[in-house]
Amino acid sequence: MLSSISHGRRTLIKVLFVCIAVFSFATLAMSQAQSNAADLQGVVRDPKGAVISGASVTVRNTATNASRSATTDSDGVYQLISLPPGDYEVTAEAPGFSKARIPSVTLTVGQRADLEVPMAIGSVTEVVTVTTASVALVETASTTVASTINQTSIQNLPINERSATGFALTISTVGRSVPRQLQV
What we know:
The chain folds into two domains: 1-33; 38-138, Immunoglobulin-like. The chain has helices at 2-33, 151-156, 164-168; strands at residues 38-45, 56-61, 67-71, 77-83, 86-93, 99-107, 112-115, 117-118, 127-129, 137-138.
């Protein structure tokens, strides 16, 4: 009798362990399925194209004024992960170089973008503003074609109503089902 209770308890513990493992793996898989943040990474370079290690790269969300920083490694690479989507100002500082400032970088949901930051030799008190025309914001981690709908696009959509259903019906794979009529 004692051995059957012990065997039943072991079986119950095994089943419970398997259930917890399955739940954990399913939760992990679902949490990676959609991302509500963006990642920014890149290389900081001097005027001759050599990497700058130990540079401090700071991103500041222009809407919330929240900022995050990272330091470049020996290869001049920095990485900032899980940034909320929005418009950012990117600055980079290193001893012997002027402070580099990129005033407008837009990150969207799920984006993993590469941003190379060029720095000029000079005093730390000098600030060199890099125009967006010379800054390439490239996403190299994904081959998917995606876009974010902004307010202007929403206002220009050819729909009769401003509801979630109306927007969903603009997608070719979505259709409206007609409810069955009750027969009297």
